[in-house]
Write a structure and sequence with these properties.
With 471 residues, the protein is of the alpha+beta class. The protein has 4 domains: 9-47 and 58-101; 111-273, no CATH class; 289-325 and 368-464, no CATH class; 330-366. Helix content is 34%, strand content 28%. It has a 6-stranded antiparallel β-barrel with strand order 1-2-3-8-7-6. A two-stranded antiparallel ribbon has the order 4-5. A hairpin with a 2-residue loop joins strand 7 and strand 8. Helix 3 (275-288) packs across helix 4 and helix 5 (305-324) crosses helix 11. The protein is flat, with a radius of gyration of 29 Å. It starts with 8 loop residues before the first strand and ends in a 7-residue tail after the last helix.
């Protein structure tokens, strides 16, 4: 198991505040914002009466882009996004991020050329197992040698269009007691390197998106386990461990998938996707389909059905709007047509109250009905997935419990359920919400795979063998 340079905890330190070294302590904890306390904190005083009297109001609050310090162990500390609240001599310090390491520059924002990190789900995403062959002694062969062999594709490398290098590799940890025991574990790790840049840019470009991609691929939320940055192009070199609310500081070793775990719908590996290409398309989906992307990046199968459904259907609606627009006409064209129709009604001497009623209640933006949007998205899916969703929903499935079977099809029922739940109408039964959530989520995953240009082969296989519920 990888050992982190700085374990989570609270450390005695000094802070450099306005050129003054102030003693204190800093809490660098798992999955929490860095929090510190400064003792004997200098205050801002105002002089009056010719300088003979000084006074100050407390608490005093200040913001710093960067605040430096040093742990008693000698580690340099660089805090980013800092707020300081002075309560008369003692100040509370909060930071968005802390960099902790040796040799960090004494001024300016540190730049790094390499980031190394772990997020959950890398083993499943990698598409390869780290060890291809394990040979153990057996009485039958009288062989006394135990050995392991790395998988030939254990290290995967890619280049981005921006010139960065990305690698997904497995490192090994070996523990042994001479004459008694020998133990090997492996850990998946991502490394990205390129032009020097601040820590926040590395995290935004690689750490966060890859954690989102593994969550999407494995259908469960994945943590950011640890992040380390290095600068190898500077002299002397320096390195830092990152602490923030998003990082849990818990390395993990590779394990075989749990028996009940859903197989990933996206894989890397020799016959799988390129991580560099996935990242590029993931960012494109974020830019082009913002609301839909937000759902895909955060939704997991563990979310309660009603909450998922109320987030999911608007996400699908927004995807359709981004792709096809609000309606058959642009809003400007629709507004012009609407005014012309109302004008003709007035010219035809329709009673003013009727015209006013129509003006008040007829749609003003000409948007597609929700059920029309959902049918269009179904038609957009690849043939194999579309056929399976159609077969599961036509005729109407028993899993709906007969709720609103008077409506035309499953997509009218889904639209009705969403509107009733969102606007206080008749609430559908829990079993209907569950079935509609599974159906809408499967559609969303299929559309996301299209945007990523990843075949839906694995998703279709999971549906066929019963591992993935459509309803």
């Amino acid at each position: 198991m990888k050992k982190l340079p700085v374990e989570p905890g609270t450390y005695a330190c000094t802070f450099d505040i306005d050129g003054v070294s102030v003693s204190g302590e800093i809490s660098l904890e798992s999955g929490q914002r860095p929090r510190g306390t400064a003792f004997e904190m200098p205050a801002d005083w105002t002089a009056s009466d010719g300088g003979t009297v000084r006074h100050a109001d407390f608490p005093q609050s200040r913001r710093f882009d960067v605040l430096r310090g040093r742990l008693r162990s000698g580690h340099h500390l660089v805090l980013a996004g800092v707020s300081v609240r002075n309560h008369f001599n003692t100040a509370t310090i909060w930071a968005d991020m802390a960099l902790c390491g040796f040799g960090l520059p004494a001024d300016g924002e540190p730049y790094f050329d390499t980031v190394e990190f772990q997020v959950g789900g890398l083993t499943e995403l990698s598409g390869t197992w780290p060890l291809e062959k394990i040979q153990l002694p057996t009485p039958a062969t009288n062989e006394h040698v135990a050995s392991v062999s790395w998988h030939p594709d254990v290290k995967q490398q890619w280049q981005t269009d921006d010139g960065d290098s990305i690698a997904l590799d497995y490192t090994s940890t070996m523990r042994f007691e001479p004459g008694f025991a020998f133990h090997v574990t492996t850990q998946p790790t991502v490394t990205a390197s390129g032009t020097p840049r601040p820590a926040s840019e590395w995290i935004e470009a690689y750490v966060g998106p890859i954690a989102d991609i593994t969550a999407f691929a494995t259908a469960r939320q994945q943590p950011t386990c640890w992040v380390q940055l290095t600068s190898k192009t500077t002299k002397p070199h320096y390195a830092a461990q990152v602490f923030s609310a998003e990082i849990i500081q818990e390395p993990y070793t590779s394990r075989a998938p749990e028996p009940h775990a859903v197989a990933p719908v996206v894989r890397l590996g020799p016959e799988g996707a390129s991580l560099a290409t996935l990242l590029h398309r993931w960012r494109s989906m974020q830019q082009d389909y913002g609301t839909f992307f937000a759902y895909m990046a955060t939704a997991t199968l563990s979310m309660p059905y009603k909450q998922r459904f109320l987030a999911l259907v608007p996400a699908l609606e927004s995807y359709h709007t981004a792709k096809y627009g609000d309606g058959p006409q642009t809003r400007k064209e629709f507004t012009k047509t609407r005014r012309a129709v109302l004008r003709r009604l007035v010219d035809a001497e329709v009673p003013p109250d009727d015209v006013e009623w129509l003006n008040t209640w007829v749609n003003r933006i000409g948007s597609h009905p929700l059920n029309v949007r959902l049918r269009q998205l179904l038609a957009d899916l690849p043939d194999a997935l579309r056929q399976r969703l159609t077969a599961a929903t036509d005729p109407l499935p028993e899993s709906l419990g007969g709720w609103r079977s008077d409506l035309g099809d499953i997509w009218e029922i889904m639209g009705k359920a969403r509107n009733d739940l969102a606007h206080g109408g008749e609430h559908p039964p829990a079993q209907a919400v569950r079935a509609l959530t599974f159906l809408a989520h499967t559609m969303a995953v299929g559309l996301a795979l299209q945007q990523l240009e990843v075949p839906d082969t694995e998703l279709v296989r999971l549906i066929d063998d019963g591992s993935w519920a459509v309803l």
